[in-house]
Amino acid sequence: MFAIGWHDNGSVRLEGRLDAASAPQAREFLAEVQGRCRLDFTRLDYIASAGLGILIAVQRRLRDGGGGIVLAGLSPHLREVLSLAGFEGIFEFE
After folding, report:
1. Which domains does the chain possess?
2. DSSP 3-state assignment of 10?
3. pLDDT tens track, the chain, 94 positions
4. How far apart are CA 80 and CA 22, in angstroms?
5. In sequence order, what DSSP letters do the residues of 18-65 get, joined into one string?
């Protein structure tokens, strides 16, 4: 199961598993995001390479416009996955 939507605090909340099956839903939602965006991973259990690719594409688009993504609420496991993928040099971690 996967869910994505706006949180009350203005961040984007991701829940469940971001994998190949849920990637189209995430891509469609994040295509509407502009400027600087905080992604709340507190409820995200898993991210596959398809999800990582979406994050990179959105980050490129937002940076071209002067914005970017902040990754927040990462579990130790997800932080390790993103670190091993080299995302610490691409994204801001909160």
Report:
1. 2-93 (3.30.750.24)
2. coil
3. 999 999 998 999 999 999 999 999 999 999 999 999 999 999 999 999 999 999 999 999 999 999 999 999 999 999 999 999 899 989 999 9
4. 22
5. ESTTTHHHHHHHHTT--SEEEEEEEEEEEE-HHHHHHHHHHHHHHHHT
What is the Cα–Cα distance from 20 to 57, expressed in whole angstroms? 15
Six token digits for residue 8? 């009350």
Q: Tell me the HSE value of 55 on the side-chain side, using a 13 A CA sphere.
A: 25
pTM of the model: 0.92
Scored b (16 or more CB within 10 A) or e, 4-26 reads: beeeeeebbbbbebbeeebbeeb
